[in-house]
């Protein structure tokens, strides 16, 4: 399986289909499909990329928790915000870190992954690439990645363990 970094352009294209995919996900939930939950750590400056990721993961059988979709979060952020984020991280099956230039510069993202590292071992980095660069800090290399994989003409999200060039297809049943 060949690793292909997730293109920010492809996430933006998926974002255009965001509502349609969410509706399909609700239908899966109503029919009793297997679902896993994941906390998505990201910069709010990447909200369009997040919409594309929501669509992508919905198709793979995952429900992503995104804090800006949670109407119980205080505005502006305060200590209650941090407590709610801690609770959500603990309550989700997985922790995902959307690696972009914005998330690397964020005040919250490094704190969230540090908290997740202390409370769960199911952490995955989602590196993205645009036409100019790939993103990641050294500490992000400690964790497995979710990237696009290509194998025998099939393309989709795949999990790549640290230091491995071969991966396995992402699905709710294999995590």
SSE arrangement:
Layout: E1 2-4, E2 6-7, H1 8-15, H2 18-30, E3 36-41, H3 47-59, E4 62-65, H4 79-91, E5 94-99, H5 101-105, H6 108-119, E6 123-129, E7 145-151, E8 154-160, E9 168-169
Parallel strand pairs: 2-6, 3-4, 3-5, 5-6
Antiparallel strand pairs: 1-7, 7-8, 8-9
Helix pairs in contact: 1-3, 2-3, 4-6
Question: What does this entry look like structurally?
Answer:
With 175 residues, this protein is of the alpha/beta class. It has a single domain, classed as Rossmann fold (3-Layer(aba) Sandwich). It contains six helices and nine strands, in the order ββααβαβαβααββββ. The strands form two sheets. A five-stranded parallel β-sheet has the order 2-6-5-3-4, with helices on both faces. The protein has a four-stranded antiparallel β-sheet with strand order 1-7-8-9, with no helix packed on it. It starts with a strand and ends in a 6-residue tail after the last strand.
Task: List key phrases describing it.
175 residues; Rossmann fold; five-stranded parallel sheet; four-stranded antiparallel sheet; 6 helices
**Number of DSSP helical runs:** 6
Q: How many separate structural domains?
A: 1
CATH classification, class level: Alpha Beta
Could you tell me the strand content as a percent range?
25-35%
Strand order of the largest sheet: 2-6-5-3-4
**Helix/strand structural class:** alpha/beta
CATH fold-level label: Rossmann fold
Quick one: overall form? Answer: globular
**End-to-end distance, in Å?**
18 Å
In CATH, the homologous superfamily goes by the name Toll/interleukin-1 receptor homology (TIR) domain
Mean pLDDT: 82
């Amino acid at each position: 399986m060949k690793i292909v970094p997730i293109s920010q352009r492809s996430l933006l294209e998926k974002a255009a289909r965001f509502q349609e995919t969410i509706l399909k996900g609700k239908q899966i939930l109503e029919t009793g499909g297997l679902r896993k939950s994941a906390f998505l750590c990201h910069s709010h400056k990447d909200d369009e990329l997040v919409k594309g990721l929501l669509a992508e993961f919905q198709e793979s059988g995952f429900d992503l928790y995104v804090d800006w979709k949670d109407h119980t979060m205080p505005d502006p952020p305060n200590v209650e915000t941090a407590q709610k984020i801690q609770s959500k991280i603990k309550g989700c099956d997985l922790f995902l870190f959307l690696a972009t230039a914005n998330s690397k510069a964020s005040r919250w993202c490094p704190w969230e992954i540090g908290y997740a590292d202390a409370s769960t071992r199911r952490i995955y980095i989602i590196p993205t690439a645009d036409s100019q660069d790939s993103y990641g800090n050294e500490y992000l290399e400690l964790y497995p990645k979710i990237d696009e994989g290509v194998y025998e003409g099939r393309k989709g999200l795949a999990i790549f363990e640290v230091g491995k060039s071969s991966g396995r297809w992402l699905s709710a049943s294999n995590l």
